[in-house]
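Chain A, query sequence.
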Amino acid sequence: MQNRLQTMGKRWKPNPARRPAQRLRAHLPLQPKPRPAVQVEWAATVTIAAGVARHQHPPETSHEAVYEDVWVVDVPASSYEEPLYERREVNVCNTCGVVISGSPAAHAEQHMLNGEPGGHHGEMQKVQTGTKTVTVSEQGHWEKRIVREAGYY
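Chain A, predicted structure.
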């Protein structure tokens, strides 16, 4: 600013009416006011002195909220039986279509005694051979739950 005024033919002079502190503040940028300390000290007593009661509070400190992670179950664990299959050759009766579990000759003999044709053929079929237990683990998600609220205490 002084250079600009000198180039214009004027010389900058401080105003004697201003106090030095005002002069300095005029050229400084605005600064935020300092924040109060986090800890506020008060005493938790009631004092009676000379007949006047005085109430004071205990020291209070600012605390942030405290959270904990909690597992929330959406679907509980479970288990179920699942059949096991295997492809095997089985004997099937040509007359009645039944799967012959015993002797094919004895089954054919029963048909012939009834006056029916007796015969059988082999087929590959899917046969259940057992079961297996399937265990499904639980399904869920994590949530943040508040343990202590934020505040002064």
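The chain has a mean pLDDT of 78. The helical segments are 2-7, 20-27, 104-113.
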